[in-house]
Amino acid sequence: MSIRTDNKWDWEIGSKTSWWGTSLPDLWAYRHLASGLVRRDFLLVYQQTILGPLWVLLQPLLTLITYVVVFGKVVGISTGGTPPVLFYLAGIILWNLFNDTFTSISSTFRDNAQVFSKVYFPRLIIPVARLTGYLFNFGIQFGLLILVLAYYFIFQGLPVPDVKWLLLAPVAILLVGTISFALGLFFSVLTAKYRDMNYLIGLGTRLLMFLTPVIYPVGYVSEKWRWLVQLNPLTPLFELFRRALLGQGVVTFPLFAYSFIVTAVLLLAALLIFNKQGDKLIDTI
């Protein structure tokens, strides 16, 4: 009886961990698992609810009404000539993409400890699936924004933005999603080791919102403190998103380049840490 020694395995699981983790072809091989996880997460959130997926639209609409009344009418924050409904709605849906993706991915190991300890698959599949799910939700909310924009274009005489700027809107969306994905990966390692990091994440996201031009334009901030807002890499992306769709926003190439570089560095560092620490954390959760 002879034994073949030339077999090549698709996967070889060992005790060593790699900084680079799983390759893109290997992740692509698990694309069906990722799509199943997206469907699972969607059903878990909206199954056995009265309104179901309508909550995807109802949540930003209720937030929009609150912002228009509180910040527009009561506080009187200027939106720089942009209709408050459009200004706040654009900021709300882009912030929801960042906030929901970041907080969800940051609990990757805590929420999936039992699955990770029983079945092997690339750990990165879970964060990718969650990012995909929230991009899907953003697409629905973005459709609502387009309908409201169409109303203002047709019935209110709002100027149509330049096509060149419109093409940059997906860039802003992609970079915001990438930042939330990278921060989520990094903090997923920390929340697995230190449970109190969850409180810091909740507090940090609430504070970060006030350093991000969600409820105010950058031009509304005094020159003395504007640098603090612009230090936030999300700021140029929110301004670019509004400039592309609404024709209003302070966008300069140096600020955009700064945001792009910070995003790339965050993503690289987060992937390295997540891949290196991922398998080691299973025994400590």
UniProtKB/TrEMBL annotation:
**GO BP field:** lipopolysaccharide transport
InterPro entries in the record: ABC2_TM (IPR013525), ABC2_TM_bact-type (IPR047817), ABC_2_transport (IPR000412)
What domain of life does the native source organism fall in?
A: Bacteria
- Please report the stretch or stretches of sequence annotated as the ABC transmembrane type-2 domain: 51-277
Q: Which GO terms describe its molecular function?
A: ABC-type transporter activity
In the UniProt record, which is one GO cellular component term?
Answer: ATP-binding cassette (ABC) transporter complex
Tell me the membrane topology, using the record's own terms: Multi-pass membrane protein
Write out the similarity annotation.
Belongs to the ABC-2 integral membrane protein family.
- This chain's protein is named Transport permease protein
Q: Which organism is it from?
A: Hymenobacter qilianensis
